Amino acid sequence: MVPIVSAKPSINVAALCGSLRRGSFNRGLLRAATKICEESIAGMKIEYIDIAPLPMLNTDLEVGGKFPPAVESFRRKIFEADSILFASPEYNYSVTGPLKNAIDWGSRAPNAWADKAAAILSTGGGFGGGRSQYHLRQIGIYLDLHFINKPEFFLNAFEPPVKFDSDGNLIDEDAHERIKEMLLALQVFTLRLNGIC
Fold first, then answer.
1. What integer is the mean pLDDT of 57-71?
2. Which residues contact 80 (CB under 8 A, 6 or more apart)?
3. Would the pTM of this model clear 0.90, i.e. be above it?
4. What are 12-27's pLDDT values in tens digits?
């Protein structure tokens, strides 16, 4: 008799990048995370959600209890996700305007972020976007987002060796390994929050 082995439940991760720039290194981190999941993490799928189409938050745009079409689509994807992966560049010691706008649209009642597991990647100069991460964690408290505590991922994009190619793709192998560790921690935490393990 062959033992029955249950497959690990599938986790759908919504990935958001705070930078709208085409060659964004933070977007490159999300591409790397997506590839890592496809190649070496069973039961986890990342879907990139573009926040560029979202209008600036304006409650006058909510008509008859409905949001603008781009917002409705965005909120549906957040609701359907099991967890969230943020790539959050640091602007003026905080999160970017586009990311805060997306967070605010998602928080309109009913709150699409509530009770979801989350993780943050960031890259840039100096602290590698660390201050934006800590501000995002503070925002997450009110949203009932549950961030993994460890491992954290900050990457100084400008220290040798070269971290990204000319197209903004992550080429640093150590960073790839660190992202994989973070994704595995997010997977375990998501399953635990959902009462699966």
1. 96
2. 12, 14
3. yes
4. 999 999 999 989 999 9
Report the C-alpha gap between 105 and 118 in whole angstroms. Answer: 17
Instruction: Tell me which residue of 69, 19, 76 sits closest to 47, measured CA to CA.
Output: 76
Report phi then psi at 108, rounded to 5. Answer: -60, 145
Within 8 A by CB and 6+ apart from 25, the residues are 89, 123, 124, 157, 163, 164, 168, 170
The residue type at 105: W
Six token digits for residue 22: 């085409």
Residue appearing with tokens 């957040």: 78
Phi-psi group of 62: left, alpha or beta (phi > 0 → left; psi -120 to 50 → alpha; rest → beta): beta
SS3 114: coil
pLDDT in tens, 110-159: 999 999 999 999 999 998 999 999 999 999 999 999 999 999 999 999 99
Amino acid of residue 102: A
54 C-beta neighbours (distance < 10 Å), count: 21
